[in-house]
Amino acid sequence: MAKKIRIIDSTLRDGMHAVSHQFTPDDMAEIAAGLDEAGIDTIEVSHGDGLGGSSYNYGFAAASDEDYLKAVSQALKNAKLDVLLLPGIGIAHDLEMAAKYGVKVARIATHCTEADIGEQHIKIAKELGMEAIGFLMMSHMIPAVKLVEQAKLFESYGADAVYITDSAGAMLPLDVKERLEAVKTAISVPLGFHGHNSMGLAIGNTLTAIEAGADYVDGTARGLGAGSGNSQTEILVAVLAKAGYETGVDLYKIMDVAEDIVAPKMRRPQTVDKAALSIGYAGVYGSFLLHSMRAAEKFKVDVRDILIEMGRLKTVGGQEDMIVDVAYELSRRA
Amino acid sequence: MTKKIKAAIIGPGNIGMDLMFKLMRSELIEVDTVAGIIPESEGLALAREHGINASSEGINAILGNKEIKIVFDATGAKPHLKHAPLLKQDGKIAIDLTPASVGPYCVPAVTVAEQLDQVNVNMVTCAGQATVPIVYAINEAADVKYSEIVATISSRSAGPGTRQNIDEFTETTATAVMNVGGADKAKAIIILNPAEPPIMMRNTVYCKVANPNEEAIIEAISNRVKKIQKYVPGYRLKVPPIIDGDKVTTVIEVEGEGAYLPKYSGNLDIITAAAVAFAEEMARKLLNEQQSGR
Fold first, then answer.
1. pTM of full prediction above 0.90
2. Which domain holds residue A292?
């Protein structure tokens, strides 16, 4: 029998980056209903930077977390509702609020070396009766042996699954293979992979991840997401079908959601432009893209220089505030 | 000055030791006792090496010693909830460096004068010490409607206490930005960065203001920075205020003194320096009272 792969669609979370967090609750409900109808297993809804992410630092969302969850929860029939939370940005109270709207899955995202700041939130999600998933961001920054340690930490806190996340889209297929295989043998819970397309490798890397043992993978309709965007869900469904995996998603229906519902709501084409490519090349957080483009314009510097400098400084996810600092310094050097 | 005020430190970890070394230079305070609960603790050994009483009896080593007037608690929130009433009963002034928040928030660049009557003050968080004075300054000049602070600290300088309860850190900081800083609403974000060599503590302060008067804002911030630099020499504006409509953005970097803890631990440095600054004001008051025979 074909192996079943669970697809978590993050159009309504990672995809929020691509629209500067401006989807309305109605937009979300419409997209969610389509994804549900197409057979997507799990649908993630949050500000791009997770619950509580609406801020000066990451951009204010068009509505509150609560309004989004309320709208989407009413639109779903079969799919599980999922939220993302980054400890340090979102708090336990946000998860408690989410539980009121029937959220069944909480992904707790930390930088790949800092799983221990997520212990509190994994436990709270479990207490609220949710499936709790540890989500190790920027996993390209550390070798497989270190990732194993962090994945095991999440497992020890009670996480139901652990994700290796290529937030920058900086991994090459061999990097994915090495990391996923190492973590797969070290943990007994399901393993997930979340890729970005900065170097055009999102789908290929996701396929590699599955071959290396991933049970869960992420996608977004039209590839909507931070930076260059994510694995495009509809492509993923087609590729996995051809590769002989079972996803439970109807290919025509997911194509229609992407083309007829999501595409008209897009604000800019989701392409690998020079800034998005620089993100993968420099290995920096995908959501730095639009913030860097704005800073480049304001301080009259090359957006690539900002991103490369952010990489040289070994910045991590969430350090959007550093972009202004770097752009300011570059403008003074010029 | 003939005599110094005697103080004790509970909790001989990184914070406790940094306090000890800072207080050893004080002209107003003498560390009488360092107390912990683990007999073989490195901190206690270090205290003994410097001729300071060291005890593994915890708070019991301090209670009943009438000479000790000021007690720094560098343990944890739970122990401090037990210590606070005992210290109060024993007539000691508690300077709480844990997140227990028993007493009012103390940010010396803003609050000293009105808190000299308190028997317990709380030192907020490192991010609170770094950002509240700036929000306070901007609020004075421009009326802050909403403030958001982003504190980025090196992974190495975030201890297990902070990591296991990171919500406490963000919530306490946001509350202090409102209650002491004067913002109507506030949000705090903390990010840990594992880069090697470790990064210095940096804080971005964003404020939405009612009166974006650039000159007044710049002047208020600059005055407040000078006040903080008196007790935290490594505190500096990394990016001067950028005013964009009603939004004010400024970035602060805190370099640690490098006396006991490494320079990248500016986050620990600023909270111990603030505790010492407040304690010295308190000691000055107590010495004046003693001299005038009260």
1. yes
2. 274-333
